[in-house]
Amino acid sequence: MSTAQPPTGTPASLPGPRPGAASPLDAPLDLAGVGIGPFNLSLAALAHRVPGLRTAFYDQRPAFQWHPGLLIDGATIQVPFLADLVTLADPASPWSFLSYLKAQDRLFPFYIAERFHIERSEYDAYCRWVSERLPGLHFGHQIDAVRWDHTHDLFEIDFTRIGADGEAEALGRTHARHVVLGVGTEPYVPEPLRPLADAPNVPVLHAADYLEHRERLLATGQVTVIGSGQSGAEVFLDLLRHRPLGAEGLHWLARTPAFTPMEYSKLGLEQFSPDYTRYFHGLPEPVRDQLLPRQWQLYKGIAHETIDAIHQELYRRAQLTGGWPGAVLTPGVTVRTAGRIAAARLELHLEHTQQGTRARHTTEAVVLATGYRERRVDTLLAALDPYIRRDSSERPRIDAQHRLVLDPAIKGSVYVQNAERHSHGVGTPDLGLAAWRSAVILNSMTPEPAYPLPSRTAFTSFGLQPSGSRATRAGLAQLPDQRDRLTRTRT
User: Fold this and answer.
1) Residues 179, 412 contacting (CB under 8 angstroms)
2) Torsion angle, CA of 466/469/471/476, rounded to 10 degrees?
3) Nearest in space to 413 (alpha carbons), one of 149, 179, 174
4) String of DSSP letters for 452-470
5) Sign of torsion, CA 342 343 345 346?
6) Where would a tag sit more exposed on the chain, N or C end, judged by fewer CB atoms within 10 A?
């Protein structure tokens, strides 16, 4: 691997033909990336260290951004700082979080602070530092279509270059042997609330836009937060801390039967390991579909620290006022319908799942912490759609190397990042698996592994045999025998 240090200055221009090449078809990219979020940024950083690999990554935004509306003061990411873009695949990478700290002259302060979980704003700043120095990243480029060129056995990628004013400046085309989709997710708004969220000048917004509207929300008399996950908890806590004492005017509603902590035991966390990802991928499709909804607490719960902070703030306010604070927390309810009842009032029709009761709730603003859904790429991949193999639910089939399963007529690969929860499990959107997945993708493209990966990553054996093994297919499952290893380690 190359040991080159991160370059300074602006990213390189679009790759062109090698000297002497007749056309761009004579010097195609090895890999073209669509989208530059943390996952494709991880892939680009690891690819930079693979000699001879030609890559380019495109994003329509003018610069890197990571959930800017949720960079609330004090909010931390829910994975350790080691889950940066590269460390778990390449600890010596110049693109690591520790390299960023060293470049900022903050390595010793961070060491003394003994912080394992960093703030979201610092993670965002770290990713922006990488994105501003890593070559081959092209912001302001909207990918319009991806097609397969059967004549040259290459992907043909059309893009529009976007100017600083957001208007199209020029059209372009590049070619690549492989493509990786990292277009991310988009905010999800439940059906009953979509008419209000889509209407202009109605104070119903997704938590993704929270900071943009925070000051207005703090000045609003009654605010309702919907959603029981970490984002909902952080928005509720931030509003609670900054609302008038004794006149908080807050409601927090959730579908879940309780405001539940996220599973964070050490053996529970092993379900975010490569071992579990491989195990989940090897399960039959119906089993995977039944399993995913039951695992919601692994990724939709609330950090213990956030729950404790909310309770502490509520208790502090109760103690200072001598009564209950003006904040109502109600789990186990769903929003059936919603509408406006006056110029500044909204009405939510609620149903309590366990009681079977219904009620009307009026408020002046709603923050929807209702999560995200995979961004659709139907238009982008329209030309490839006839070649994409699908499962019984019409979802794309995705192999163990995170590639769409395509018709053999397509010689190149289309990789996906954070679009394979149905095939790879709950770890799909987890930042802790970013570097490992990037390494898996790169290793599948190179004759020899670019990044050797461990064969085992968890103490838990999730199945009786490794998925896909000959013994499993023959029905001859047997637990691993550890006796010889134990005997050898005795002294």
Assistant:
1) yes
2) 40
3) 179
4) ---S---SS--SSS-TT-H
5) positive
6) C
The first and second tokens of residue 38, run together, are 């943390």
DSSP 308-361: HHHHHHHHHHHHHHTS--SEEEE-SEEEEEEEEEETTEEEEEEEETTTTEEEEE
Only one residue has tokens 């006056």, namely 342
**Token reading at 489:** 């380690």
Phi/psi region, residue 425 (left: phi>0; alpha: psi -120 to 50; beta: rest), is: left
Query: What's residue 4's pLDDT?
Result: 40
Give 226's strand partners.
Answer: 253, 368
Q: Which of 328, 349, 309 is nearest to 250 (CA)?
A: 328
What is the spatial distance between Cα 484 and Cα 8, in angstroms, rounded to a whole number? 53
Give the C-alpha separation, 322 to 325, whole Å. 9
Residue at token pair 């912001």? 139
For residue 367, what are its two tokens?
């923050």
* Nearest-angstrom CA–CA distance, 16 and 260: 53
- Is the Cβ–Cβ distance between 232 and 225 less than 8 Å? yes
Among residues 385, 416, 387, 388, the alpha carbon closest in space to that of 400 is found at 416
Pairing of strands 327-330, 250-253: parallel
Nearest-angstrom CA–CA distance, 268 and 430: 14
| Cα 338 to Cα 361: distance, rounded to the nearest angstrom | 9
Mean pLDDT by 10 residues, the chain (491 residues): 39 42 73 98 98 97 96 94 98 98 98 96 98 98 97 97 93 97 95 94 96 96 96 98 96 95 93 97 97 89 95 97 96 96 92 96 97 92 97 96 97 96 95 98 96 96 71 41 42 35
Lookup result for tokens 């009654």: 222
Q: What is the pTM of this model?
A: 0.90
Q: How far is CA 59 from CA 136, 244, 322, in A?
A: 11, 42, 53
Q: How far apart are CA 36 and CA 131, in angstroms?
A: 9
Signed CA dihedral, 194, 197, 203, 208: sign only: positive
| pLDDT confidence of residue 68 | 95
Residue 206 CA to residue 213 CA, distance in Å, equals: 10
- Length of the chain, in residues: 491
pLDDT at 23: 60
Amino acid at 145: A
pLDDT of residue 32: 98
**Cβ proximity of 324 and 246 under 8 Å:** no
Note every long-range contact of 336-345, with CB atoms under 8 Å and residues 24 or more positions apart, other chains counting: 336/192, 337/192, 338/192, 338/193, 338/195, 338/196, 338/204, 338/366, 339/195, 339/196, 340/196, 340/202
